[in-house]
Amino acid sequence: MTMRLDYLSIFPGYFDVLDISLLGKAVDNGLVEVHAHDLRDWTHDRHRTVDDTPCGGGAGMVMKPDPWGEAFDGIIGIEPDPSVHVIFPTPSGIPFTQSAAQELSTVERVVFCCGRYEGIDHRVIDYARTMWTVHELSLGDYVLNGGEVAALAITEAVVRLIPGFMGNPESLAEESFSPGQERLLEYPLFTRPVSWRGMDVPEVLMSGHHGRIAEWRREESLLLTRDRRPDLTD
Ligand SMILES: N#Cc1c(-c2ccc3ccn(Cc4cccnc4)c3c2)n[nH]c1N
Fold first, then answer.
1. Which CATH number belongs to the domain containing residue 108 in this structure?
2. Does the beta carbon of 118 sit less than 6 angstroms from any atom of ligand 1?
3. Ligand 1: which atom is nearest the Cα of residue 138?
């Protein structure tokens, strides 16, 4: 299966980075195909206007619905198709999680709608919900200037789960937040040299005793999780 990823943004250059690294390899291997689009290509005025003042007043500008609707018509089509997943990154979205990444990794087509300014006219989202499967997702409780960085983060989390993307898929199963895994943070990692700037790798990790190593790692994960993410232990 090839996953098609479309990105609608007034800064399509953000997505040039997808040609690099593992994701670039996934494109070369035909696992994913990536299309970035400039929303301004669907404007018709001299200034290629995509925003206007908010109805009801308030600070900032709101993205006009017209360019989005015409871009949808051109990129996705005018017929409803629930197999198309349209993602609106937004501060008011549902928190994006590993399980959402897992679900999206099985989808054949994803369209990211990257807003800017104070956000997108709500009728765009309402329209999209009549046509496709819509996800309003948030990366977390902090403020970005637009949806592009979130779209890149979601892309990486999703594409790495596509069968055939990662060299050793077994490693995915062991990662924190993977399905079936206890909700624990990753234990501290070490590699050679054994001694570095007066600090040594914990002896147990050099013991070759797999039972003790597993026990040490679990204890470290429990301590770290209790300290940093007590919410995961509820
Ligand atoms: N996902 C996600 C996000 C965003 C985010 C996503 C899309 C847009 C489009 C515009 N802004 C600026 C903006 C700022 C403040 C209020 N409203 C809008 C966006 C912020 N911020 N933080 C996240 N976790």
1. 3.40.1280.10
2. yes
3. 1
Supply the ipTM of this predicted assembly: 0.98
- Residue ending a domain, among 135, 160, 185, is 160
Residue 89 alpha carbon to ligand 1 centre in Å: 7
Q: What would the pLDDT profile of 17-51 be if each residue is shown by its tens digit?
A: 998 876 888 888 899 999 999 999 999 999 999 99
Question: How many domains, the chain?
Answer: 2
The reply to whether 119 and 25 lie within a common domain is yes
> What DSSP letter does each residue of the chain carry, written as one string?
-PEEEEEEES-GGGGGGGGSHHHHHHHHTTSEEEEEEEGGGG--STT---EEPPTT--SS-EE-HHHHHHHHHHHT-SS--TTEEEEEEEEEEEEP-HHHHHHHTT-SEEEEE---TT-B-HHHHHHHHHHSEEEEEE--SS--SSSHHHHHHHHHHHHTTSTTSSS-THHHHHSTT-TTS-S-PPPP---S-SEETTEE--GGGGS--HHHHHHHHHHHHHHHHHHH-GGGG-
| Residue span of the structural domain in which 192 resides | 169-232
The pTM of this model reads 0.95
